[in-house]
Amino acid sequence: MMQIFPTTKTDLFLPFIVLALWGAILANLTCLQQTDLKSLIAYSSISHMGLVVAAIIIQTPWGLSGAMALMIAHGFTSSALFCLANTTYERTHTRILILTRGLHNILPMATTWWLVTNLMNIAIPPSMNFTGELLIMSSLFNWCPTTIIMLGLSMLITASYSLHMFLSTQMGPTLLNNQTEPTHSREHLLMTLHLAPLLLISLKPELVI
User: Domain NADH:quinone oxidoreductase/Mrp antiporter transmembrane, which positions (predicted)?
Assistant: First the structure.
C-alpha cells in the first residue's frame, strides 16, 4: 500500500503508525499482567514488533535501518530470554513467576545472565537494541514529534516489565526445597553465543544497517 501513494502523501499513514505504537503499548501492559514467564517473554516480542512496523511505514533511511537493527537485536535477546526461562523451568518445574523467585541464592551465574539479558531488552547502550530504538525514535520524532509521547510510554513500560521479570525470578526468598543443579558449561556457552554477537555488532553496526 505504501508504494501506491507518493512520498508527499505519507501523512496518510499516521493512523497506521498510531495503531502500531498503541499496539506496542497494549502488549507492554499485557506483559505486566503475566504470571507465566514464557508468556511474558512472548508478549514482549509483540511490543517490539510494533516499533518495527511503525519505523517501516514512514519509509525513511533511519527508520528502515532502525527496524533492521531492532529485529536482529530482538531476535538474539528474545531467544536468550527463552533459553534462560527453560533453564529455570528445568530446575523449578514451573513457569509461574512467584514460584521461581530467589534463584540468585542458588544460581548466581544464571542471575548474572538474567541481568545482562534484561538490560539488553531494556535497550541500554551500547547494545544493538539501543541502536535500533534510537534510530526508530529519531526517525519517528522527525516525522511527527507527537509520536514521542507514545514511544516514551512504550519504552517506560518495557523497562518496568523487564525489571519486574528480573526481580520476580531472582530476588526474594527461594521456595525450592529440593537439591538444585548448578548451571552447566553448555548453558553458559549458549548464552555467550546469544549475547556476544549483539556486542560485536554494536561495535560495527554497518554490518547490518
Answer: 6-157
CA distance 150 to 158: 12
Q: Which of 25, 180, 41 is nearest to 117 (CA)?
A: 41
Looking up cell 508504494, which residue turns up?
3
Which amino acid is present at 54? Answer: A
Residue 1 lies in a domain: no
- Give the span between the Cα atoms of 149 and 138, in whole angstroms: 13
- The identity of residue 203, as a single letter, is L
Tally Cβ neighbours within 10 Å of residue 101.
20
pLDDT by residue (tens digit) across 68-109? 999 999 999 999 999 999 988 888 888 888 778 878 878 888
Q: Which domain holds residue 131?
A: 13-207
Strand partners, 36: 96
**Amino acid at position 37, single letter:** L
If one counts the domains in the chain, the total is 1
